[in-house]
Amino acid sequence: QVNKNMKSFTASQAAQWMKGKLYGDDTMIAAVSIDSRKANGALFVPIIGERLDGRKFIPNAMENGAVMTLADRSVPYPHILVDDTLSAFQDLAKGYTAYVGTKIVGITGSAGKTTTKEMIAAALSGKLRVHKTQGNFNNQTGVPQTLLALSEEDEIGVIEMGMNHFGEIRALSRMAQPDVCVITNIGEAHIEYLGSREGILQAKTEMLEYMKPDGKIIVNGDDDMLIKLKQSRSDVITYGLGEHCDFRAADIIDKGLAGMEFTVIAPGVSRRVFVPVPGAHMVYNALAAVCVGRCFGLAMSDISDGISAYRPIKGRMDIRIGKRLTVVDDTYNANPQSMRAAIDAVSIASGRRVLILGNMFELGENQVQYHRELGEYAAKSGAGLIIGIGENGSDIKAGADASGGTALSFETQDELLVRLPELLKAGDTILVKGSRGMHLEKTADAVLQMAEL
């Protein structure tokens, strides 16, 4: 079941939201599930994908106690007949979100979406009841599940929106109808499908098409692409380090792996903020959270208290200090921008720094060049050892070698794991980072075992 706290609605309401036709009693629906094994008491939504046809699981869902199913053809069970079950699922989420009435913050960008989402949720949670995207539920099936998990008590929904093709953010925004739109940056992630940074900007700003009429747009004012929005619209709030930003950070103090401290300066605002996670990019994430908090009328003291209570989720700059090693697990995902930010974040660590860097996916025809540049950047950061893993591991090594770094490469993670004990020394700080499909959490877990926490 998606939500035990769902505000119940009738089957006829659901049919109206989805423009479907009800076959069966007008029963109350208090849960929605796309998993037939967890359909007890729920409306079952069979998703028809490339690998699995959810229609095959309708009998199983009904046996497991589903009260009704969606269907795109007649079935011998109570059902709502629709043209397309995924599209109907999204319409259901749109209707339900409006029905519950929760204010929505939508977040997208090339890098930093999840951390910014977590930071915003932390900033708001001191004073407001917040529901946020869990895990990687930021796509065409994840966002409707997140929206359908809202309860009447939730005052704010903080919804992450991911994409790699044109039109995807538009579909997600149509469901969520955000009150506040946050765009973190325009980098190179997904350039394989979107062609250029201009294309990426176009895809990300699809979110604005379904923003509420009196909504606010919050963007990184130091991003050369996003600042153009400020020049063309009156509803844009900018954050960053530049003097031109509406909310800016000044007097930044880097406290090493303990985190970052800075002063937020805005009209009528001057407040010291501590972010308990390292890296200059965390200042940007915190500034975005400050902007959102102010949009909802929160006091700066409550916002800063929420940010100081922020704790990273596993795989997102998750720092673990052991007796032998310090491990920075940033394995959740990677692109050129976030790779550089993570390398910068650990550059202040004492002792030798070891960077274990995996493939970055969806970079298109220039992927070799991107990985070579990553190796060069890693070497110039002064890392003691750079380890490239995967198909482009040798390109990372080549870039590091060309810039005078000490580097190794392994085609597979398993090859590295065999060598790992001899490569690491007591006192090392190890960053592990790569795209989600690399599954480098396996390496991070292996290093953690050696760290003697």
Summarize the structure in words:
- The chain is α/β, with parallel strands linked by helices and 453 residues long.
- The protein has helices spanning 11-18, 58-63, 85-100, 113-125, 142-147, 168-176, 191-194, 197-204, 227-232, 280-295, 300-308, 336-346, 367-380, 393-402, 413-423, 441-451, and strands spanning 9-10, 21-23, 28-29, 32-33, 43-44, 68-71, 79-81, 103-108, 130-132, 156-160, 180-183, 216-220, 236-240, 247-254, 260-266, 269-275, 318-321, 326-329, 353-358, 385-389, 407-410, 429-433.
- Helix content is 35%, strand content 21%.
- It has a nine-stranded mixed sheet, with helices on both faces. Strands 17-18-22-19-20-21 form a six-stranded mixed sheet, sandwiched between helices.
- Strand 20 (385-389), helix 14 and strand 21 form a beta-alpha-beta unit.
- Helix 10 packs antiparallel against helix 11 (300-308), helix 12 packs parallel to helix 13 (367-380) and helix 13 (367-380) crosses helix 14.
- The radius of gyration is 23 Å and the shape is globular.
- The two termini are 36 Å apart.
- The model has no long low-confidence stretch (mean pLDDT 94).
